[in-house]
């Protein structure tokens, strides 16, 4: 009787559709490779294949980092199922033979006040006075190719939620070979000193949410302004206003230029493209993904006898980049767009 | 225990606070060189019925002014009838048209990045437009996947 029951179960199990294990390599290629490189060598994001990195992070840390991301620091949150994230973590681990370290969840006990002093001496240069991390997004574009890693933001709520005290402690003790992060033990600090620094880093949790982990909130996706002038005059005014706001006029074309044969374009929708190369260079160095904004443009539209100027709202777009460093630039761009349109409408 | 609770609460809050900003950019890395990836991208755009309207040479502009840059271009594309209909009926979409993809070299690889058209549904919460955005999202996903998978 028991054998028949077991056999029935086996047959039933065999008839069920097989649950395929998530393909970590494929998931990594789709979700991570753009920033971290095909083989984890880094790029916009930090290198994940460095043995010294893998020796100081747990699977739990990697999982939580993928899930929670880094608010305001480019790395997005993920809505992938846990099984997919685990598969990605396994794939990341496959680049190294060493087993994944495990860390105690027990908090490290140290003197945060003393840790503050040591942090100011030893960590500020790379990680910033408030733990805000290095500037930019990683090793790309105008950034030197020989600098393999950006100093992470230690005050970031994503980092603090993902990293245990003992993981941070091990990083401070061992350093990360191949990056500017040195071993503090080799630098002469004692284990007690390192405990104090860990306690100070953990105290960032009690600080108000850093502006470096912030995203701009604004409701308008479009900036619009009415023009009292006709279409042609408004177009000329926008060109002049762009110039007087330190932008170089690039070109003017009907919105559907290239879509319809030359001469048959809609004469009532014209895009004026312009650029401030210094600002452009600063934006690309901060985040090379900002091509979506490029070049700066204002569209002049005539509808039902009324002329309007329209453009994207960079402050609204900034949110989708999850990069707090872009916020200032986007805020500045929004002000420029408004100033140009106001001037053109005078 | 207290510490675990703290981490869990932080994780929960983070999850709630930042779900909206997850994956709002569509970004892929291609192992192709920049010129090859650019060719595959433009082919992938046109085979889906769109027309490339313009390629903005961001890199050339920067280099002329004296800045150092990798290859960096923005490809604009669209469909004539669709653009005409949408701009007539929903003029608020005008600043986001034509659609575009930024493409730039990253060492020997090439990276493509654009905002997910689905994100526009947050910007313009109109049920009629959602169908259009979802169609763009499907097409664009196919386009970037084609570039990513090309060898």
Automatic annotation (TrEMBL), chain A:
Q: Which residues cross the membrane?
A: none
- Protein name as annotated: Cytochrome c
| Pfam families attached to this UniProt entry | Cytochrom_C (PF00034), Cytochrome_CBB3 (PF13442), DUF302 (PF03625)
**Keyword Metal-binding recorded:** yes
Instruction: List, for all copies, the residue spans of the domain called Cytochrome c.
Output: 19-96, 110-205
Which GO terms of the molecular function aspect are on file? Answer: electron transfer activity; heme binding; metal ion binding
| Species per Swiss-Prot/TrEMBL record | Sulfuricella denitrificans (strain DSM 22764 / NBRC 105220 / skB26)
What are the alphabetically sorted keywords of the record? Heme, Iron, Metal-binding, Signal
- Signal peptide residue numbers: 1-20
TrEMBL record, chain B:
Superkingdom assignment: Bacteria
The signal peptide annotation in the UniProt record is 1-22
Q: Which Pfam families match?
A: DUF302 (PF03625)
InterPro entries from the xrefs?
Answer: DUF302, TT1751-like_sf
Against PROSITE patterns, the record matches this protein to:
PROKAR_LIPOPROTEIN (PS51257)
The record places domain DUF302 at 62-117
Report if keyword Signal is assigned: yes
Keyword Signal in record: yes
Keywords from the UniProt entry: Signal
Q: Supply the name of the protein.
A: DUF302 domain-containing protein
Identify the species of origin: Sulfuricella denitrificans (strain DSM 22764 / NBRC 105220 / skB26)
Q: What is the lineage of its organism?
A: Bacteria, Pseudomonadati, Pseudomonadota, Betaproteobacteria, Nitrosomonadales
């Amino acid at each position: 009787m028991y054998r028949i029951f077991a056999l029935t179960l086996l047959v039933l199990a065999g008839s069920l559709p097989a649950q395929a294990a998530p393909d970590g390599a494929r998931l990594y290629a789709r979700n991570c490779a753009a920033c971290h490189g095909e083989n984890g060598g880094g790029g916009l994001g930090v290198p994940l294949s460095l043995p010294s990195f893998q020796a100081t992070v747990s699977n739990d840390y990697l999982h939580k980092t993928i899930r929670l991301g880094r608010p305001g620091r480019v790395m997005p949150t993920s809505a992938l199922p846990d099984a997919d994230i685990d598969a990605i973590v396994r794939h990341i681990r496959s680049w190294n033979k060493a087993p994944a370290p495990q860390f105690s969840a027990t908090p490290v006990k140290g003197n945060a006040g003393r840790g503050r002093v040591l942090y100011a001496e030893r960590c500020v240069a790379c990680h910033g006075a408030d733990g805000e991390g290095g500037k930019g997004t990683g090793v790309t574009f105008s950034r030197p190719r020989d600098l393999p890693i950006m100093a992470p933001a230690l005050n970031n709520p994503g980092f603090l939620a993902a990293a245990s005290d003992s993981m941070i402690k091990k990083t401070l003790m061992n350093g990360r070979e191949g990056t500017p992060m040195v071993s503090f033990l080799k630098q002469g600090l004692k284990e007690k000193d390192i405990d104090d620094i860990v306690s100070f880093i953990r105290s960032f949790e009690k600080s108000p949410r850093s502006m470096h982990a912030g995203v701009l909130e604004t409701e308008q996706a479009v900036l619009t302004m009415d023009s009292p002038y006709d279409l042609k005059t408004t177009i000329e005014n926008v060109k002049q206003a762009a110039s007087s706001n330190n932008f170089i006029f690039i070109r003017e074309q009907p919105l559907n230029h290239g879509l319809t044969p030359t001469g048959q374009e809609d004469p009532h929708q014209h895009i004026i493209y312009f650029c401030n190369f210094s600002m452009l260079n600063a934006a690309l160095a901060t985040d090379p993904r900002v091509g979506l904004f490029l070049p700066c443009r204002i569209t002049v539209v005539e509808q039902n006898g009324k002329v309007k100027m329209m453009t994207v709202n960079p402050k609204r777009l900034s949110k989708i980049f999850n990069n707090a460093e872009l916020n200032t630039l986007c805020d500045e761009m929004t002000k420029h767009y408004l100033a140009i349109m106001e001037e053109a409408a005078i | 225990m207290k510490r675990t609770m703290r981490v869990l609460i932080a994780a929960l809050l983070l999850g709630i606070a930042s779900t909206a900003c997850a994956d709002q950019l569509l970004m892929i890395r291609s192992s192709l060189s920049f010129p090859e990836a650019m060719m595959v991208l433009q082919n992938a755009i046109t085979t889906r019925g769109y027309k490339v309207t313009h390629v903005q040479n961001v890199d050339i502009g920067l280099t002329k002014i004296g800045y150092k840059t990798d290859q960096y271009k923005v490809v604009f594309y669209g469909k004539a009838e669709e653009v005409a209909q949408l701009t007539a009926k929903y003029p608020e979409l005008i600043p986001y048209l034509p659609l575009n993809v930024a493409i730039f070299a990253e060492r020997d690889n090439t990276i493509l990045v654009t905002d997910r058209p689905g994100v526009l549904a947050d910007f313009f919460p109109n049920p009629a437009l959602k169908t259009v955005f979802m169609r763009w999202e499907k097409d664009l996903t196919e386009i970037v996947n084609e570039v990513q998978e090309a060898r």
